[in-house]
Amino acid sequence: MTGIEALWVPIDRKVNKSQLVNAAVDHNNDNLYIGRAKFMRDLIPGKVSSDLKSIRICYDGKEYSLDNFEVLVNDVNFIWIEASNGDVPKNAVIGGRAEDGETLYVARAKYLFLTIPGKLHPSHKSAYVPFDSKELAVKTYEVLVRLESNGEALKPKPEKLVSPGFEWVRFIKKSGWPENAVVGGSGYDGVQQMDQYIARAKHDTNVIIGYAYKDGIFYGTFNGIEIRTERYELFVKT
After folding, report:
1. Residue 91 — left, alpha, or beta (φ > 0 → left; ψ -120 to 50 → alpha)?
2. Nearest to 46, CA basis, from 29, 32, 28, 26
């Protein structure tokens, strides 16, 4: 397996959020960035809060919040590649190292309807993400990768990261609304209260969690800007 080094800068430097890797959004729809921090004798990649004040990493079954960390500077050639069971795609971004010297890679994974940044530990055949004070082991995940110069060496596969008992279904208007689409909230359209269904859509190299009204368009936010699109997927119970 071959990884690549990337540019990391200490958080005490002045950084512009637009220069960082926006890996996901949290349950409040705030952006999460990629960072890494030293903990015990490991250097561990994890998720950085939207205000850039803390990083959350996972170690030995638990989640930890730290305020001394580095953030990953974005690269126009970064993309997310699906993998599983410890597999490391070519040109995966090196995020840190375990105490025994093993390389840890920048990864993210789905849990419930959230995308959570974390670490890939190849010898464990798993990625790990911090959530709700715990370290969650996930067998199917995405790895941050730098495309080769021709842009063809690595192509992202369709995303299949999902919790057991659920799946993401592409919304196609002429095919009708998917059965068992999961309601995540409700909103008022000026006339009546309407269900808001959990949805996701791609924006640049990111996947944004948001919502859609039945047979309507997707609404989400990216860097504080509202994103609307008619091309999205719905979170559906199987």
Report:
1. left
2. 32
The DSSP-derived string for 66-82 is: ES--EEEBP-TTEEEEE
By CB atoms closer than 10 A (0-12, 13-18, 19+), residue 132 is exposed
- pLDDT tens, 181-237? 998 887 776 677 888 899 888 877 677 888 888 878 888 887 667 788 888 989 888
Every domain of the chain and the residues it spans: 3-146, 166-237
Q: Report yes or no: 105 and 34 within 8 Å, Cβ to Cβ.
A: no
C-alpha to C-alpha distance for 109 and 161, rounded to whole angstroms? 7
Tens-digit pLDDT profile for residues 132-160? 999 999 999 999 998 865 554 344 444 44
